[in-house]
């Protein structure tokens, strides 16, 4: 099974040990935990949500990128191009967060 398929199957915030290293515009690197890989928009394009592992400046910050796999199976993250696309992706991620919170809230009451 490919790592990305495992991440999708595990769902939001499960596992917590898959990381990616982002190279920022200033050339510095930032190690991030993969929160989830999801689809958004009418075309069903793939996106990834990541959060920095540590660092006071980045506390609680979530980064959203386009996500694709190259022919060799390696992940490729690219910037979201427009404000409209970012808004669509951000809204989809918010829905995932809401669903996760609802699942956690109700999981203790079902038996």
Description:
It is a single chain. It is built from two helices and five strands. With 111 residues, it is an alpha+beta fold. The protein has one domain. A hairpin with a 4-residue loop joins β2 and β3. The longest helix has 25 residues. It starts with a helix and ends with a helix. The N terminus is likely disordered.
Strand-helix topology:
Layout: H1 3-10, E1 19-23, E2 29-40, E3 45-52, E4 63-69, E5 75-78, H2 83-107
Antiparallel strand pairs: 1-2, 2-3, 3-4, 4-5
Q: Structural class of the helix and strand makeup?
A: alpha+beta
Strand content: 25-35%
Mean pLDDT reading: 79
Count of domain modules: 1
What best-fitting shape do the alpha-carbon axes yield?
globular
Q: What is the helical fraction, as a range of percent?
A: 25-40%
Uncertain parts: 1-13
Sheet with most strands: strand arrangement? 1-2-3-4-5
Largest sheet: 5 strands, antiparallel
Q: What string, H for helix and E for strand, traces the elements in order?
A: HEEEEEH
Number of strands: 5
- Radius of gyration (CA) equals 15 Å
List key phrases describing it.
single chain; 111 residues; five-stranded antiparallel beta sheet; alpha+beta
Short overview:
This protein is an alpha+beta fold and 111 residues long. The protein is built from 2 helices and 5 strands.
